[in-house]
Amino acid sequence: MGAALIGCVWLHAAWPVALCALSSFACLVWLGRGSFTPSGRFGLANAVTTLRLLLLVALAAPPSALPATRAFTIVSVVMLLDVLDGWSARAFGDVSAFGAHFDMETDALLVLVLTLRLWLGEGFGFWVLFSGLLRYLYVSWLWLWPGTGRKAPRSRFGRSAFVLLMLGLCSGLVLPGVWGTSGVCLGTLVVSLSFARSGYFSRLAS
């Protein structure tokens, strides 16, 4: 994904990340076959996550072909489907490690593609990509320098950070000037604090 992002900067387009992501997800699904759900079937929740993935890839379209209002509509539908896939996994007994991983990586891609859209189409500076890169930088950091393996305890702040980030990024699509910029900055700050909290527990907390 890092190499694909370099391609995006070089070509001033988002499609390299979308292409790389689809290839990566295809590998994830292939490697996860047989463990999609406790029963082994793919399951409704994973099917909804797949639909989310395909929809959000549309955000990589050139801004001239996808106006900001349509991009906002796509993000809204993707977020509603995010609620649906979690509910269906619990309702049908399809909760699994694969499903959680699939969902988390789809969320990470949504943030990255949306920040690329803000950079390419809405006039934001390169700094806006920071929140989109955080998940990938964090995972790479833990891979290169493994910590204690301890996870941060679940909290309302941790659960809310992603929602606040998405609201902030969406404000950059639909709100003019300083209002949109303030929303993006606030969302980036909140999710940065959330990752810092996770990093503290994985590396420093005893």
Chart the SSEs and their pairings.
Elements: H1 2-11, H2 15-31, H3 44-57, H4 68-91, H5 97-121, H6 130-144, H7 156-174, H8 177-203
Describe the protein's architecture and organization:
The chain has 206 residues and is mainly α. The protein has a single domain, classed as Up-down Bundle (Four Helix Bundle (Hemerythrin (Met), subunit A)). The protein is built from 8 helices and no strands. Helix 3 runs antiparallel to helix 4 and helix 3 packs parallel to helix 5. The longest helix is centred in the C-terminal third of the chain and has 27 residues. The two termini are 32 Å apart.
Question: What is the CATH topology classification name?
Answer: Four Helix Bundle (Hemerythrin (Met), subunit A)
Work out the radius of gyration: 17 Å
Q: How many separate domains?
A: 1
CATH architecture: Up-down Bundle
CATH class: Mainly Alpha
In helices, the fraction of residues equals over 70%
Mean model confidence by pLDDT: 91
Number of strands: 0
The stretches of 5 or more residues where confidence is low (pLDDT under 50) are none
- Total of helices: 8
Q: Tell me the major beta sheet.
A: none
Large-scale geometry: globular
Quaternary state reads: single chain
| H/E element sequence | HHHHHHHH
Q: Supply the helix-strand structural class.
A: mainly alpha
Question: Quick summary of this structure?
Answer:
The chain is mostly helical and 206 residues long. It contains eight helices and no strands.
Observed structural traits:
73% helix; 206 residues; Four Helix Bundle (Hemerythrin (Met), subunit A); 8 helices; 0% strand; mainly alpha
